[in-house]
Amino acid sequence: MADSIKIDFQAPAAAEGGDIVVFVGEALKPSPAVAKLLGQKAVDLIAKVAAVENFKGKARSALTIVAPSALSADRLVVVGIGGEKDRSELDWAQLGGLVAGKVNGKTATVWVDLPGVTATPENVADMALGVKLRRYSFDRYKTKKDDSKKDGTGRFVFAVPDPAAAKKAFKAVDGVAGGVAVARDLVNEPPNVLGPKEFAARAEALSKLGVEVEILDEKAMQKLGMRALLGVGQGSSRGSRVVIMRWNGGKAGAQPIAFVGKGVVFDSGGISIKPGAGMEDMKGDMAGAACVVGLMHALASRKARANVIGAIGLVENMPDGNAQRPGDIVTTMSGQTIEIVNTDAEGRLVLADVLWYVQNRFKPKFMIDLATLTGAILVALAQEYAGLFSNNDELAQRIAEAGRATGERVWRMPLGPEFDKMIESKFADMKNSGGRYGGSITAAALLQKFVNGVPWAHLDIAGTAMGSPQTEINKGWSSGWGVRLLDRLVRDHYEG
């Protein structure tokens, strides 16, 4: 995250230097209040340049004009918000990201008075969030920085009627921006730098924010009987870890909510080794765990009024002489047995033990797990939606609503006894892969066997969290997917 970015809020007034950002609809006219601040010459100039450049004010379009001498600014950046339908579906974070991508002066003054739209303090905060997310970059391993990709603007001033209210709303949102950056950093790190031990240390740093952090090493996991998780990591020279994070922001003794993340820091596939092409991307197979750490950062930063458990299983899946084999049978912490038919179906083994541990120890109100679990989910949903599986309709509906609100969308997939049948084993209670058909569903069906009836949802984020689609708020390889979604879920339903 570009920590040098300074976000300010002030009452509307003439800007001094830098860029001025104004918004227009299809009529190409700024709001009356903005028009008055600009002056008639600037308003006429917008119309004239728009005609020459064929700028129609469509949603997510922009026009840059050298400011007329009457304005004490360098440039006018005119951002289109489209027609009535576009304005009713306005994504404020994406709009902020668009603005951040169009300005390049030392200062940008954004006059948040949109024609036909009333911006709440929360809308303004989301726009500022979009600015911060757009300005994220990960170039710590480049010895020569690409100056052409550097954004010059270091200060964004949002001109709004109630600066104090906007500033208050942004204070909470800023913690979410930090959480997204934490998740992005973790996913982007190379696997030689970020093994299970190092990942656990990154999570332990949350203690500075008041999060209680407990790390289980292999000895502790052996004692607990987490043989499914340990089996995945036994081919690696780097020991596995489980990290438990606790944020106690709710009433003392109140039942917690829980988030569980798959953290395979590198996935070679093990003995069932993956093809070499693209294997470097498997450093991102811990994006679920990264999201959970980022979420705990966000919740602690804004002092969420909830009791929250974050749990992550950290392993490396490698093919050495001690590696797990196809045909092995492991006994999970729950006592259930799993036949390994494919060592590349490893994430569900990690989650099986962590889910059981969390429900057994903490008795949560619900559990949500996140995992880059299956390539099959990309076949079904591309990179547009995460797959949602759940045993609880209310929880699933709330997650879907939070997804629509944040743009981190989910699509509910089925579960049922016919899918359980597909993972039946001749030699154990179940097998870890049901084959090619319904691969995402059979993986979720296995996970369900370890939630012990607790309300639960599984998010398969293989398509959304790494190699992520490029948007106005994400220009990198990792989007930090899920932090905003789950923060919104907690904020809307589980605080108080």
Tell me what you see in this structure:
With 496 residues, this protein is an alpha/beta fold. It has two domains: 6-153, Leucine Aminopeptidase, subunit E, domain 1 (3-Layer(aba) Sandwich); 176-494, Zn peptidases (Aminopeptidase). It has helices at residues 32-38, 40-53, 84-88, 92-102, 121-134, 163-188, 196-204, 218-224, 227-233, 287-301, 347-362, 376-381, 393-406, 417-422, 439-448, 483-493; strands spanning 6-10, 19-24, 62-66, 75-80, 107-111, 155-159, 212-216, 241-248, 257-267, 307-317, 329-331, 337-339, 367-371, 386-390, 410-412, 430-431, 456-460. The strands form three sheets. An eight-stranded mixed β-sheet has the order 7-8-10-9-13-17-14-15, with helices on both faces. α13 (393-406) links the parallel β14 (386-390) and β15 (410-412). α4 packs across α5, α6 packs antiparallel against α10 (287-301) and α10 (287-301) crosses α16 (483-493). The model has no long low-confidence stretch (mean pLDDT 95).
Structural class: alpha/beta
What global shape is seen?
elongated
What's the domain count?
2
**CATH fold descriptor of the largest domain:** Aminopeptidase
Our count of helices gives: 16
Give the C-alpha Rg: 24 Å
Summarize the structure.
With 496 residues, the protein is of the alpha/beta class. 36% of the residues lie in helices and 19% in strands. β14 (386-390), α13 and β15 (410-412) form a beta-alpha-beta unit.
